[in-house]
Design goal:
By secondary structure, this protein is an all-alpha fold. It contains 30 helices and no strands.
């Protein structure tokens, strides 16, 4: 009995390292590091895509796989739509459950990564690499931003497909592998890369790709294409409001060095973590082009230097190094704005190439510097612990930034000028009636990049404060924007605000022209019909006023529209108060 008690030491809790112990370590570490994120609220696009999205509130499969917010702007992502609809119908507006499930998915993804790495490396190294993936601050956006749950979903489906490809390729495995690939690509389009890396792995291993895999892939992609076509047709939408999408192709290519450098820099030194990065470079100069290019070449030189060393030594793991190198580079190609994305860079997009980078480091650790650990165990272990502690502390701090929309936008708007974040900070301040504090952020946003939202918000604040002249000016600026750059909801609200000002504080004749134009564009808007009715009545256009009041009452039935209709019907005086 005493011998057994003596064996229960701290060291024996970890050694020998079994699969079960490694998985328990991953689970405990994940929940400790991300514990404070469980109490965060809904932020950023969570409000648009989940809380205020009527399309997911009633679970309807046809709606969820058809045209909706998740399946628009060139994207087709029905599984995230289904996922969030299920969660909303189960948990409603309780953010805790969304965060808990998302963290659980990240921990499962890390566990799967450990199991995959274990096929190539020993257990301790596989665990270390997986824990880096688990706690690294660059993955915070993928873990605590509820709207980014698709990162874990496509990784799990794609990772399971890849895991199946590691063993003997039976018919059952091949069919199940392609089922997971279909699910992955229905989560996010970047999952097409899993087809590529699986093909590459099989080719490097067997020097040929079985015909059944080729045929199954063709069927899988055909099924995806048919589902997408019948759900959306050939709908494509241009991203008008994203600065990087408006940059000429040649200048967009000049962004490649700084974009590549951003991800490498953030991996090694994750100090600056910011959402919604929509910056572009204006000139090809030292800081925006030559310096990042130099650092990129230095990094790639080290990587290809390691490859050259393995080739020179005829190392048996050279094929595996090439595999992880291609995994990393293929993931990065999708992030370099060759085809414009909806942001310049985003931390959550690194979820896929991260694995390739870790795989290369695993090969370097075991094949190029195999003797370092044996000769300097204590120093190496101390360095690893320090790295984990630093990464974990940075992650915990970053988790707290995501507590609320205002806390996140306020922190992230400081490092560099960002028109969208300034606008978002202002919107949150307006929501809590801190109008004076909202003004500086709105002015910054408009100065950086005037668009429908910041111009409308500036007009609405002036409107609320009774400065109708300035409110009219900014509302008119919204309507002066090019077609396609004004969202329908913003344009509708702008019409309402501007027409009210013209009716009650401006020129009723101008208001009449604008009101008629607005109902032609938004024929189902009862408020615009009501404003048109009021305007027509003030101009003594009795028949037109009564007709508009009747339609307003039908489209927007309430006491106000009923009273307006009766007033005009009986030709009684109309109280004109805003």
């Amino acid at each position: 009995m005493q011998e057994k008690e003596q064996q229960l030491t701290f060291k024996n809790l970890f050694l020998p390292l079994t699969n079960l112990k490694a998985i328990v370590i991953i689970f405990i570490t994940g929940f400790i590091v991300f514990l404070n994120s469980l109490f965060n609220g809904f932020v950023w696009d969570d409000l648009t895509y989940i809380i205020n999205n009527p399309e997911i509130k009633n679970f309807n499969l046809l709606t969820l796989i058809g045209p909706n917010m998740f399946n628009s702007s060139g994207y087709f992502r029905p599984i995230p739509a289904i996922y969030f609809s299920i969660l909303y119908n189960l948990f409603g507006n309780s953010a805790f459950y969304y965060h808990f499930l998302q963290l659980s998915l990240h921990i499962l993804a890390t566990t799967l990564l450990f199991i995959i790495f274990k096929k190539f490396f020993n257990k301790p190294l596989s665990l270390i690499l997986s824990l880096i993936f688990l706690v690294h601050p660059i993955n915070v956006e993928s873990v605590v931003y509820i709207g980014a749950s698709q990162s874990q979903l496509y990784f799990l489906f794609g990772g399971l497909a890849f895991y199946l490809a590691l063993e003997k390729l039976t018919t059952k495995r091949i069919l199940l592998m392609h089922l997971f690939l279909l699910l992955a690509i229905l989560v996010k389009e970047i999952s097409i890369l899993y087809f590529f890396v699986i093909y590459l792995f099989i080719f490097l291993k067997n020097k040929k790709i079985p015909k059944l895999i080729l045929f199954s892939s063709f069927v899988t992609l055909s099924i995806y294409t048919v589902i997408r076509f019948f759900s959306l047709g050939t709908i494509l939408e241009k991203m008008e409001r994203i600065p990087i999408s408006q940059v000429p192709f040649i200048l967009r290519l000049a962004h490649i060095p700084i974009i590549f450098f951003y991800y490498i820099k953030t991996f090694f030194f994750p100090k600056l973590l910011v959402i919604d990065q929509v910056w572009t470079i204006k000139n090809i100069d030292f800081s925006s082009f030559y310096f990042p290019l130099t650092m990129d070449l230095l990094f790639l030189g080290c990587i290809f230097g390691a490859l050259h060393y393995l080739l020179k030594k005829k190392n048996k793991e050279v094929k595996l190094f090439i595999f992880f190198l291609v995994w990393f580079l293929s993931g990065m190609v999708f992030l370099l704005q060759i085809f414009p994305l909806d942001m310049t860079v985003a931390d959550r997009w690194f979820y896929f190439p991260f694995v390739g980078l870790l795989g290369m480091f695993g090969i370097i650790a075991t094949q190029i510097f195999p003797g370092i650990y044996k000769k300097n165990k204590i120093i190496v272990l101390f360095c690893i612990i320090i790295i984990f502690v630093i990464l974990s502390i940075r992650t915990v701090i970053r988790n707290s930034d995501w507590f609320s929309p205002l806390s996140l936008y306020s922190v992230d708007s400081k490092p560099y000028p960002n028109y969208d974040l300034e606008s978002k900070v202002a919107a949150e301040l307006i929501y809590i009636n801190k109008f004076d504090q909202a003004f500086p952020h709105l002015f910054k946003s408009v100065a950086l990049y005037p668009h429908d939202t910041n111009l409308f918000n500036l007009g609405s604040v002036y409107d609320h404060l009774g400065n109708y002249k300035k409110a009219q000016y900014y509302y008119e600026r919204v309507l002066e924007l090019k077609n396609g750059t004004i969202r329908a909801k913003i344009k509708d609200s702008t019409y309402e605000g501007l027409i009210k000002i013209l009716i009650f504080h401006g020129n009723p004749q101008t208001a009449n022209k604008l009101a008629r134009e607005s109902v032609r564009e938004f024929p189902q808007d009862g408020v615009l019909r009501m404003l048109l009715s009021i305007n027509e009545y003030t101009l003594n256009h009795y028949r037109e006023a009564l007709n508009a009041a009747q339609k307003a009452k039908t489209l927007f039935p309430n006491d106000l529209t009923n009273k307006l209709y009766k007033t005009i019907l009986n030709k009684k005086p109309l109280s004109l108060s805003n």
